[in-house]
Amino acid sequence: MFEQKDRPVLSSIVERHARVLSAIGENAGDRPLVLPTAEYFPDRFAFDEPSAQRLVARMVLHAGLDDVPLTTRVVDDSEPTSPHEGGCSSGCAVPFASGASARRLVDEGDGFLLNVPATELRHPVVLTTMVARALGHVLLVETLPPGCAIEAPVELVADHAAVALGFGPLLLEGAYIYSSGCGGPRVAQVTSAGLDELAVLTALFIEMRGHAARSATKELGATQTDALGRALEWARSNRELCDRLKRDPARVAAGDYTLRDAKPWLLRLFEKKRRIEEDEVPAELLVSRPAPSKPRDAANDELASLVDEALRTVRTDAE
Predict the structure, then answer these.
(1) Which residues contact 7 (CB under 8 A, 6 or more apart)?
(2) 57 with 50: CB under 8 angstroms?
(3) What is the pTM of this model?
(4) Which residue has the higher pLDDT, 302 or 28?
(5) In this structure, how many other beta carbons lie within 10 angstroms of the beta carbon of residue 60?
(6) Residue 24 Cα distances to 94, 141, 179, angstroms
(7) What digits encode the pLDDT tens for the residues 38-47?
(8) H-type alpha helices, 25-85
(9) Which of 23, 85, 97, 291 lies 20 to 30 A from 187 at CA?
């Protein structure tokens, strides 16, 4: 991705995200970049329902949704199956409302009920990813006007909303879960958006909000770090797009933007330096100046004197 041939895919991702940002407006607020660290998750986790409730409450606070009534309960349900326990191969995704006995997220009218499968308590990446996705869904429901449906596919749009809430790093971890066992290495995915798409969205969020990318790459797996690094290089080559997404996402959603190919940081640095030099040269320094005089030469000076004397002699004789 991030080459000219990838522009149709990138345009689709960017325009969908612009529609999401336009729909939620300022409701997401100025969110932090939430990382899987003790700074953002300081509570002790004991793999039980109170621990899950504390974790969800913490994530609700990070998302700025603490004014939305939300109840968390752990349900004894075999679905969704953990990606580490079989039954979930590469590319699996857990729906918000499956055919299981308890739906993950229930809109109760005056609040939400979040059902957490007991199997997820043993897998922090799966748990935090799914909670983040559910909160993205909550944001959309709370933001859209009554009777207005969420754009399809709902799960994919919820992933976009979750990234807008600052949960991009958590979703990146959930998009590529590597495990090894007696059957060999396996990769599972518990997001709807793929790793590359989430990397693009997270990079846009970082650039739009001015977050430090290094803090995210330090906490991610090697595959996620590589994907985010490439996406950041592309996003930094498209600063005008990032600025427009932040100020006027509706224009981007309507196709009013330009995509540029990713450029190495050194080339971007030289281009920026050249623009600064061109923009900052004072006008008075741009006026034309006479060419500097050549250094004087003694032999030439002596020859010139002899010529002048000869001419004066000729003029005297003529008179």
Answers:
(1) 259
(2) no
(3) 0.77
(4) 28
(5) 20
(6) 24, 10, 36
(7) 999 999 999 9
(8) 49-63
(9) 97
